[in-house]
Amino acid sequence: MTVRVPVRHESDVFVAGERAREIGVREGLSEPAAAALATAVREIARNIVVYACSGEVLIQRAQCQGRRGVVVVARDEGPGIADPGAALQDHVSTNGTLGLGLPSARRLVDELELASEIGKGTTVTLKKWAV
Prior knowledge:
By secondary structure, the protein is of the alpha+beta class. 39% of the residues lie in helices and 32% in strands.
C-alpha cells in the first residue's frame, strides 16, 4: 500500500514526515531510525513548498534481499535543479540558505536518489532499511 501526501502548505511538510515515521516503525525501523527518516522527508517536502509550490510525497513499505524498510518518493513539477550533483553538497544554495537540506537528508537515510530537469521538476527517492 502506498500512502500519498499532497504537499502544498507548510502543514503538509509535518504530515509527510509523520506518515513516514509511522510506516517506518511499522516496518521495523527503530524509533531513532524512523525519526531520522521523518526528518529527511520533512526536508524534502519543505523544498517542494519553497521551490515548487506543490507536489506530492509517496510512502510505501519496501522489501529487498530479505530486508524490510521504507521507500519515499517526493516529486514536483517545479523549476528543477540546474546541477543536482552540486545540490547534494553541503553549503550549495541558489537562494541564500545554508544549503544543508538535501545533503542532510542524504545523511539521514540509507539511499537517496535525485533526478531533476529544468522546467519539468524534481524527484527525490529516499530509502531507509531496518537493521
